[in-house]
Amino acid sequence: MRPNSHEWKAGSTHAPNRDYRWDGPAGMGLALRWARAGETIIIGSRDEQRAQIAAAAIQRRAGNNANVSGLENSAACAAADILMLTVPFDGQATLLKQLKPAITEGSILIDTTVPLAASVGGRASRILGVWQGSAAQQTAELVPAGVSVVAAFHNLSADLLNGDDDLDCDVIVCSDDPDAAQLTRELAAKIPGVRAVDGGKLENARIVEQITALLVGLNIRHKGHSGIRITGLPPSAYR
Amino acid sequence: MRPNSHEWKAGSTHAPNRDYRWDGPAGMGLALRWARAGETIIIGSRDEQRAQIAAAAIQRRAGNNANVSGLENSAACAAADILMLTVPFDGQATLLKQLKPAITEGSILIDTTVPLAASVGGRASRILGVWQGSAAQQTAELVPAGVSVVAAFHNLSADLLNGDDDLDCDVIVCSDDPDAAQLTRELAAKIPGVRAVDGGKLENARIVEQITALLVGLNIRHKGHSGIRITGLPPSAYR
Fold this sequence. Notes:
2 copies of one chain form a homodimer. Chain A has 239 residues and is an alpha/beta fold. The first copy, chain A, is 36% helix and 19% strand. Chain A has 8 helices and 9 strands. Chain A has an 8-stranded mixed β-sheet with strand order 3-2-1-4-5-6-7-8, sandwiched between helices. In chain A, β5, α5 (135-142) and β6 form a beta-alpha-beta unit. In chain A, α1 crosses α2. Chain A is globular and about 40 Å long. The A-B interface holds A 125, 127, 157, 160, 168-169, 172, 197-200, 204, 206-208, 210-211, 213-215, 217-218, 221-234, 236-237 and B 125, 127, 157, 160, 168-169, 172, 197-200, 204, 206-208, 210-211, 213-215, 217-218, 221-234, 236-237. β9 of chain A pairs antiparallel with β9 (227-231) of chain B.
């Protein structure tokens, strides 16, 4: 495992809602935060040039010590050990099928997908039913054997991630692989202001994904960038 | 409307999990908090004597100025203008059908039901699918015309409600009746430490109900009494 090497997939060419613009603001924001924390970032895109432009923009903001590059998606998958999937739900399965040959055994795939109804023309405050139970479980069905899927980062505001202030949000991490979940919680905790919480098995991702639709509704209703904090747990819950 | 008169239904004779014991700890805890805040409380039960015993226990803890009484369920429904439903999911529909003739037009029914799989012998960290979308929407189908249904209070720890400390949790309130939602938010804000958030339409209750299953899982995993806070919203969101 190379814990300092992360691919960040942000490529998507359409915009079902503001959180999933073609330039992948959630993905860009996470990449920015991790680049600042000293992680090696590879931006993946269908178009290598676009990936490089995005990488250069993050490099510029994160400073000279950051290590951010851009590659075509398959090359990015092959080059990284921790893969982040941040595409709209309607592109998730197709992309995973395309990339399956490039995803190497032993890698970790962190899925941030939220099956918002907006991805099929509905409302961003509603969720589609996914046969497997959650977008993350759909992902788990589509990756090669020996790849661990983790669901996390669904509830972070892309706008806030792309800013410079500390966040005020917890990240609930769900996975059937305790080691992959632990590594993901450590990554989450590198984002200033974020605490990571062990959310148990991957099947629990269905609830965490749905919380995003609730937060989108709150954002629309109250003009904010909402997130959640879990209260009432001992400090050991955030390790 | 008599905003100081609340029926509190807590009657249930079985115990699918710790949050839904026969003595209805969530219901008792809310009644205790509102009795202390000066609200008039009527405890409802299938058995009037049991209701009176529960009422006396709350009266004792809430002090001499509290106004807590106990009635059989139908009498309680007829006597109150705001009805709280706090029974396990498997008892919800049957009870509502029984009580339908006693629920008066113009009253508000606040539904706290969470369709935990535990109510049919499954896990308390899993949720049943409800045809209408949520337990609250099932309730809306079963109440007489002219009764407003509000979904709220799902995510409060019964143990913490029954204690004396301030809570550290937000209550997300969902309803298709803005006035009933507003009244419910005012009630929620009377619980020390609680902020109420407008969660939009009743259909959104499906997400808020599911959050409880996530919190149950966190409580089991981390030995806590978890709740949630919504972050990133302006102060106006909590009115």
